[in-house]
Amino acid sequence: MQPKVAVLSGFGINCETETMAVFDMAGAKSDRIHVNRLVNGEVNLADYHIMAVPGGFSFGDHLGSGRLMGNRLRFGLREQVRDFVKSGKPVIGICNGFQVLVKMGLLPGDKDISLTQTASLALNDSGHYENRWATLEFDPNSPCIWTKNMTRIRVPIRHGEGKFVTADKKLLDDWNEAGQLTVRYVDPSTKYPSSSDEVLPYPISPNQSWRNIAGVCDPSGLVFGLMPHPEANHSTWLGATWTRENIEHGEGEGMQIFRNAVNYVLENFNN
Amino acid sequence: MNFHNFVEVTLKESPELPDSRGNTIKNMLMTDHQINIDKVRVLLKYDIKGKISNSQINKAVYDLFADPIIEFGSANNSLLNSKQVFPDIPDLVIQVGFKPGVTDNSGQAALDGLFTLFPSLSKINISCSKTYIFWGIPSHIDVDDLAKKIYNPMIERVSISDKQACLDSEWANLDFPEKPVLTEQPSQTINLEVTDNELIQISEKGLLALNLEEMKAIQANYRNPDVRSERRKLGLPAEAPTDAELECLAQTWSEHCCHKIFAAKIHHVDSETGEDTFIDSLFKTHIMKPTLDIQTEVNWLLSIFHDNSGVIAWNDDWSLCIKAETHNSPSALDPFGGAMTGIVGVNRDILGTGLGARPIANTDVFCFGPPDYSGHIPEGLFHPSRVFRGVHAGVRAGGNESGIPTVNGAIVFDDRYLGKPLVYCGTVGMMPRLLPDGRESHDKTPQPGNIIYMVGGRVGSDGIHGATFSSLELTEDSPSSAVQIGDPITQKKMIDMVLEARDLGLIQVITDNGAGGLSSSVGELAELTGGADLDLAKVPLKQPGLSKWEILVSESQERMTIGVNPEDCEAFERLAALHEVEATAVGRFTDSGAFVVRFGEETVAHLPISFLHDGCPQLQLESEWKPPQHKPIIFPSLDHKGMGEMLSRLMARPNVASKEWWVRSYDHEVIAQSVIKPFCGVNHDAPGDAAVIAPIHGDTQGAVISNGIVPRYSDIDSYAMAAASIDEALRNAVCVGVDLALIAGLDNFCWPDPVESTKTPDGRYKLAQLVRANRALDEVCRAYNLPCISGKDSMKNDATLDGEKISVPPTLLFSLIGNHKDVRKAVSSDFKEAGDMIYLVGETHQELGASELAFMLQAESQGVSGIGGQVPQIDTSRNLSLYRSLTSAMSKELVASAHDCSDAGLAAALAECCFGCDSGANLDISQLLSTQSDLDIWGALFGESLGRILVSIKPKNSQLFEEYMKGHTCNLLGVVCPEDEIIFRNSEEVVLSASMSDLRNSWKGTLNGGIY
After folding, report:
1. Could you tell me the residue range of the domain that residue B926 belongs to?
2. I want to staple A162 with a disulfide (CB 3.0 to 4.6 A). Which of A207, B546, B819, B863 is the partner?
3. Which residues pair with B217 in a beta bridge?
4. Is B215 found in the same domain as B129?
């Protein structure tokens, strides 16, 4: 069986091409699906095994990044999305896609998939958009199926609104307890593991996210989102400093995330 | 139920959640204007006009407008009244909103969001404004002056609450920006049977930018008995053009659209050599001819000169295309909107190439006045730092929101860009060579009978006369209607839709609506089939009341014109609806021989295709070259530390200084293809040379993109300027290991007006500079086998303000696109490790004329020292053979790093290579000095001789590398050192020493745009 991936597109999403490419490299078969094809019933989300909301600038980030696209999904595709997650299928949101999943309440989410927003992504403390490389560290105790067996990766961040915050700080402890604070910015000069709650200095933490959070998963570990772009490091020659490194060329550090999901589907849906 | 509601939104500020928008304003006022404000907060206000219930508005506050987690929202009660939100009474409140009719992307997005929540709503308008709230304003600051620093009266309105008003809670409150009701003017006939003076007046009053000879050519056409009898038959005014016809001709014949100066017949005299000759079109002679000659020898030039961009075959499956545009005049008036429409506009050139190409990379090159300029700024101009910030923000928004990476660029500073900034926006596109239906993608396949669709945005009164306006110099009276703000998301939706339509075989012909609007786009495509019939009544409008000629020439953004087979129309419209893109059939292509424009039943224009496209008379121009005289450079006497400080000051010059703060806010990695990025090195802060991208995911074939620009050299000789620009672009590409068998170029000229007149008494000299630059382009491109596949010129880069004329230095941007056979072998500029051996390849001559050093010494001596001396000369055969050997060595992975030697010479290049390695270096230049008898230490360290690249080689590879470089000048200068110091020696004597951390601080300090 070849897992099928629905990669959403339209309205200013702009990373769908590379997002499709990484799933295909990981052995899946991805389709570019305009959101309206799901809304009008032309395409049925249930026919897919994985849903990806790629990065971009949906609706130009006006009224807050991911907000308007989040509403299109929350109001236009509410039951389709809930059924998809309830059926145990993985979902990923990257950068703008992460913002969409947070604003529509799918992340950090809850057991009932109530689609109630509990966190947000505020403007970076720098006040502007930035493209720079960051080092990420994964929580080994996270239930997230996307990040299994991963320790650290280097990937670019490319956003203006990536500061993960919440209204109720107690939630951060709950999410941490549940392993939902899946991935954090970390100082690359430290030894693994070293992720910490204290906000690291700029630019190690490029946005001054609370607890250095770069990405979170839902309680089930199936829905995952992150601000950085693992799909942008699909091959070694895309690294920030690859010309300084003695490397065997091949797959990049970001690919494991997509392999994990494809393998998860193969293990759980191969009948 | 209210018909006018408003919603306000502001951040729930806390120490852990600072108001970063407010802080950005605070920092900008400090950095650019030295105004120290205690605190700034920002509040967004959405004014909503139309029928909507209270419960709907209340629901929308947190479901749409405000983020329930991090923001406060309020409907119909200002948050400024809330002690919970703003406990302290502000000292000043400034509300900034758009003028009526200016594109309001936030307002449009809010409207879309409102319809998502309440699909049954209709007839609603939303306008978004920003309110800046200040505390702690220095007492000497005038609030109106402060407001001028944060709004642009050209496009925005402002409302201010001063201290007293704040105490009285009388808050700034702009009206809803109702579009003024337009009254459609009935079609008019323009009587051309008038005196010559009156003909000129018609042109000037109508902003037509047509000269007397052109007006007379139009007059003559309407005197032609055949034309008159034909017009009588059609029921058109027989003896005079309609307003729509005259406008259409003015657009098509504008300098912007038809490049009259490059097509002119030029009488060229050279007082140095005695040459006296005629040149029949610089374009045909020096740009087109060399490329056509090269085309006979290569098989990869697929489409040149006739389309929106040039197309080359990159491999058997894919082609690449590239185009650069300038958006100088609009960027002078509204830096943000002007630059944004520049970048999204050139993206459309790519989308309109062949049957539609996907934009995959942007390059941006800007020329500004010095950011620290302290002299007089004429009324009507912005300070260069504000132009810089605005242009940067516009290109950032346009590029990032479109999902196109900005992979390469440059920023050049010179006092003379104060009057007009140059904003070059370039885009690379990619197409599958064959479409699924078997057609070759680079060829348009129009047929008479194809239905003409206008796709994307609507037509409004914005952008009327952009093409003709850019063909005039900038004055206080320049019209604000020429300024527009782009809407990248509308365009992105259109790009997605168009590329899908292309792959479904639904597109027969496509071009963008840029300068001249429908008159140009339909007019140009009509030439392909031999005619078109356009019905303006079908064109969707932003507002009623536009006159017919305005609909025809409006340059409203985000529109493509597409020809579709009648049987494909239904599928085409269905696809557009899916993408929520407006696509309207507005006419059909014909073979009638005429471009016919109607409004319903009424014919408003009927122009024979041949007259429209070939009727413009050729200009006759005079050119005379006299070499300029310059004072020589006076070199101070300095010890090695003094020389180190000299280098440090050079590194801080804006032309050399790090642009990292600015470039980081461009997305340079979207599409996941970026191999050699704008930054490299251990700390990701050393400057890269050319960009390398690998656009097919997982594949290792690459494309190289680079730029060359050296306007300084025009002060001595524009031939040297053009030659150096081309060599710089190629050198940069060589530094990353370009495949020299597949390189193509783009020439983009920005000149001051070179036509002699009372306003331009030195027109002959400026035209001679253009002639010399073109001759350099011809000779160098032929020698490098580097065909120009597309280009552009902007010939009126002068500003007269306060009676003061400021002309830009003659500037050629040369952009290059090339192949890279295997990106895994690409080379970056940063030194890799201590112990690596440093070589300078290429010859160093005593060439300091118009160098960065010369300009610095001139400024530091208040003009006592000049810029005179030998300007760098080109030896194309020596350079090319060296480049071939060096790229061969790279393909064998023998080269650890390679960096271009250009601005500020060897010393600056060395410092930049060291930044990337956190290293120092120890070099001996005695070998350079002994091989060139006239070369001194200044020339060796800071001279800008062309054809030179600084490389580092692992010791184990040095012998083999030297073998590759046999027959070329290749000097081993020294080694990379782990210490913090760079040292240049002449044998034993230290001639320059500097601490790398000092150099780094100087280099990073100048253009640091903010605290982050």
Report:
1. 827-1012
2. A207
3. none
4. no
Residue B676 forms part of a structural domain = no
Q: What is the pLDDT of residue B150?
A: 92
pLDDT digits (tens, 9 = 90+) for B271-282: 999 999 999 999
In angstroms, the CA B809 to CA B416 distance is 7
Same domain, B908 and B847: yes
Q: What share of chain A is helix, strand, coil (3-state, %, to 5)?
A: 35, 25, 45
Specify the pLDDT at position B472: 59
Q: Of B748, B762, B751, B766, which Cα lies nearest the Cα of B796?
A: B751
Residue B193, classed as helix, strand or coil, is coil
Same domain, yes or no: B138 and B59: yes
Q: Where are the alpha helices (DSSP H) in B691-745?
A: 718-735
Residue A183 is which amino acid? V
Q: Smallest Cα–Cα separation from B322: which of B812, B794, B790, B734?
A: B790
**Residue positions counted in chain A:** 271
Q: What was the pLDDT predicted at B557?
A: 87
Nearest CA in chain B to A126: B1012
pLDDT digits (tens, 9 = 90+) for A174-229: 999 999 999 999 999 999 999 999 999 999 999 999 999 999 999 999 999 999 99
Asked whether residue B236 is domain-assigned, the answer is yes
**Residue B671 is assigned to a structural domain of this protein:** no
Nearest to B20 among A18, A57, A127 (CB): A127
Q: How many CA atoms lie within 13 A of A21 on its CB side?
A: 21
pLDDT tens by residue, B642-675:
999 999 999 999 999 999 999 999 999 999 999 9
Q: For chain B, what percentages of helix, strand and coil (3-state, to nearest 5) are there? A: 35, 25, 40
Residue ending a domain, among B262, B279, B301, is B262
**Residue in chain B lying closest to A104 (CA):** B63
Contact present, A266 and A129 (Cβ < 8 Å): no
pLDDT in tens, A10-45: 999 999 999 999 999 999 999 999 999 999 999 999
Same domain, B162 and B233: no
Question: Chain A contact for B103, CB < 8 A?
Answer: no
Q: Which of B489, B689, B692 to mutate to test the interface with A (most CBs of A within 10 A)?
A: B489
Cβ of B578 within 8 Å of Cβ of A37? The answer is: yes
CATH number, domain containing residue B994 = 3.90.650.10
Closest in A18, A240, A243 to B671, CB measured:
A18
- Tell me the domains of chain A and their CATH numbers: 4-122+131-269 (3.40.50.880)
Q: Best of B25, B578, B832, B895 to disrupt the A interface by mutation (most A CBs within 10 Å)?
A: B578
B831 shares a domain with B977 = yes
Rg (CA), chain A: 17
Q: Which chain B residues are closer than 8 Å to A123 by Cβ?
A: 20-21
Task: From B150, B167, B184, give the residue that closes a domain.
Answer: B167
Whether A253 is catalytic is: no
| Tokens matching residue B548 | 């017919």
Domain count of chain B?
Answer: 3
Residue B851 lies in a domain: yes
